[in-house]
Amino acid sequence: MLGLDVCEFGGQVLELLWLTMCYRGLLADKKDLRIEDEEDERNLNYVAPLQKSLEEIRQLDQDDQSLVKYKRTLLGTETLPAADPTVARVQVTRLTLQCDEAPEPITMDLTEDLSALKEKSLSLKEGVTYRLKIHFKVNREIVAGLRYHHVSSRKGITVDKVSHMVGSYCPKEEEHEFLCPADQVPAGVMSRGRYTVKSHLTDDDKNTFLEWEWNFDLNKDWKE
Question: Which of 50, 88, 164, 210 is the most exposed place for a label (fewest CB within 10 A)?
Answer without folding.
Answer: 50
